[in-house]
Amino acid sequence: MEIIDITQEVFSCRVFPGDMPPKRQVAKVIDKDGYMLTNVSMCVHNGTHVDAPLHFLAEGAAIDGVDLSVFFGPCTVGEVRCADAGAGGGSTVREMPVSSLAGGTPGAGGGNGEDAAELGGGSTVRETPMGSLAGGTPGAGGGSGEDAAEPGGASCGNTSDADSECDAGGGCGADGAGDEAGTDIDACPVESCTPLGRGDVAPLLASKPKRLLIKGEHCLSPEAAEAVAAAGVRLIGVESQSVGEPDAPAGAHLALLGAGVVPLEGLDLKRVAPGEYTLCAFPLKLGGAEGSPVRAVLMKG
């Protein structure tokens, strides 16, 4: 079995503007105290994380009240390629049914059934360092590079080295020498995302996935979020730090959370080929919290 880490490293992660960045404080060290002890402070929406209904709904469930079955099971990784995502309701999207996406054998149970893959046997772990996200060569195991856009078209949501201040110089909140690490709020703004319209996401919903992860720096318009919810998706994942448009995030969040769809945000899918996988992305049991960081992985084989 191959295990693919799709999680940002916490202390170098991207931070949504206005959120507190992660900070690490080494309270005890082995040389002096005989053991090491670390204190951590962070926003629950830093890096790779999930939102609970309470994030936007006053009477919504907190993260410890969300059905855990949502976070594990068959999952589709899809990619939107177009000349101008979101323009004209997605009319420029190249048709690419999920069932024909490159990337290997469907998950256990076939397609999007809810039967979990067997977890026995040896595993190969492939991690993706945050410092190597922009462009580059596909990773081992058939990863998909972002330089392979079709002639005459563009791959939506491509990022460059200049897109994010957080990827430069060791990242946002890079560790100090055992002291409290972190940066000021807004010091590392998240890069912009490409809003997707209803027509942009329609090809990805054709196979009725229960869990759908979208490659690229995309966010959803309210209309696209409504389409995702109407298609019966239980969990929707994006690489952007917010599933909603940066200047108006409430619309997409309300459409998803109000329909019981869990947003999984801040993913690292740049080395993952589109296709069928098993997702494991459990939140911490943070009683009363409106979200939680996760260690998200995809399993194949």
What's a quick, concise take on this entry?
The chain is mostly beta strands and 301 residues long. It has helices at 30-33, 198-205, 222-230, 250-257, and strands at residues 2-5, 23-28, 37-41, 49-51, 72-79, 124-126, 194-196, 211-215, 218-220, 235-238, 262-265, 275-280, 291-293, 297-300.
> How many helices does DSSP assign?
4
Numbering strands along the chain, what is their spatial order in the largest sheet?
Answer: 6-1-14-12-5-8-10-11-4-13
Specify the structural class. Answer: mainly beta
Low-confidence segments, ≥5 residues, pLDDT <50? 87-179, 181-190
CATH superfamily: Putative cyclase
Q: Give the C-level CATH assignment.
A: Alpha Beta
- What is the terminal-to-terminal distance? 5 Å
The assigned CATH architecture is 3-Layer(bba) Sandwich
CATH topology: Glucose Oxidase, domain 1
Strand content: 15-25%
Helix/strand order: EEHEEEEEHEEHEHEEEE
Number of DSSP strand runs: 14
What kind of oligomer do you see?
single chain
